Amino acid sequence: MIAGAALSLALGGFIGHAASTLAPDSVLLNGAPCTITSNGLSSAGTCSGAFVQTSATPAPTPTPTPTPTPAPTATPAPTPAPVSGGITPFYAATSFWNLPIGPAPVLDPNSAGMVQAALAGSAGGANFANTAAWGRAIVFSHNSDPLYSVGCSMYDCGTVISFHIPLGATPESGSDHHLVVINLDTNEELDMWLASFGGGSWSAGSRYLTAANGWGALCAQGQHCGAAVAAGFAAFGGVVRPEEIQQGHIDHALALTASLTRSGFIACPATHTDGPSTDPNAIPEAARIQLDPAFNVDGQSWPQWQKVIAHALQTYGAYIYDTGGSIAVAGQGNQNGGLVWSSVGVPDGPSLSNLPWGQTRVLLIQPC
Q: The pTM is what?
């Protein structure tokens, strides 16, 4: 059989007989090579005079025009939870550090006397403590950092404390040698006073653990306990960071030292005090002061960083956290890297004597 035409073939001068019915695509064989089959045996030969049905080459199937796939609608990124000023805040949103004062605070009956004796009278030496000596030293750690059993030599040494501290962590160089270490994996905070590293180990005059996302003091309000700072606060509470000056606002109360602090009086939210003065106008540690909100901060010819601090004093105020040789607003030190103060226009240890300390007021003081 050859492509649909029946041929009777005999060996020798073979003539094929055409099929009786031809399709339009039939062609005449004329000495064309073909395969000859006889009695089940096949051999090569030539065929003439027979018509065979050719297999027409089919027209190519046109490639279908693809239906364009619509671009997928992008899944909107979730709106991140609002963060205070775009900077992760320290301590809980309900911490006393993070609560604004409000429009009508109750003032202490002796507000004017304390302002004059403890603040206005010392305004000439007021400064921003952001140097390597007095700026609060802070470093961040992970569970992958070395784990140290932190020794203790003076106060509250009965508790064994182990903490992950990165290599090269550096305390303040001033006499307090504070160092705050925050473990970013656990939100634990280690506060050290008189911190030192030697012989491959860390030790401190006193050291305490607290939660970097907690209340902001070492024990609950109304309880009394020690801490690395005199008022019993977490040691990084109220500290101003360079990033806050850079963003143009501070969203928490400030930490402030004063030289005339009251003896034997623990004011809420303090848990401790080391105030030395019996002067009735001495200000208790943990007293909260506020710059008069009516004062026109933006109308002053101050550098912008001072205006940022002044606005925070109006909105959140400041807590007296320790006794010092002068009025000092606590700032972060650059001992352990990070954004440097000079890059945001703040010099080292600048004066704050031009802030109107005489126009501050003391909010109602309650004993704790």
A: 0.77
